[in-house]
Amino acid sequence: MLRITSSTHFGSRCVMPALLQYQRLYPQVTIDLELDNRRTDLTAEGFDLAVRIGEPTDSWGIARKLCTNHVCLAASPEFLKRHSLINSLSDLTALPAVSYAAEGLRFAQLEHLDDTGSLRASPMQIVFWCNNTEALLQATLAGIGWGCMSRFLAHEDLVSGRLVQLLPDVRMPPYKSVYVVYGQRELPLRVRLFLEVLESSVAQWAAWKG
To answer: Of the CATH numbers 3.40.50.1100, 3.40.190.10, 3.40.50.300, 1.10.10.1320, which one belongs to the domain with range 71-165?
Structure first.
């Protein structure tokens, strides 16, 4: 058996395709996947590995970077019909936006890099707050406001045209990177084979290109 835990949205969009490919290659291996954003004790709970977004800490165990979590600015075609003149960040940040808020933390400013590479922040006009990125994606698709979101979350909707990328020349700092975490250096063969499939799957996906 291969037991994996992953953050919810990354797991459903990025880990699942790799797991399906893995099971086609190795049908004799049973898979147990848990999608959860809580902190997991891999050894105590019997997981082979975890996939997590965020900088690793000593308590994580052994952490191996999987990819950089790039972000993008996006809005629905419906939103752009109402707000067609978006030529600069100042134009964009004056318009209704959706953003993340949880446990006293609110992302009320848009961080971006200036021409020198220095980090800047512009206030946003937030009309919809939520502690769930999937719900924020749905609000963006519905035309409630524009959003700043992980490319892996927006990828399919950008490809299909349900979302349109805004100001692609604006340099956005990447969000927290994605790591594979495990509790022992000598991994069983079934785990090593899955890591090969996962890394290959992620490397081929256009969503990881900034």
So the answer is: 3.40.190.10
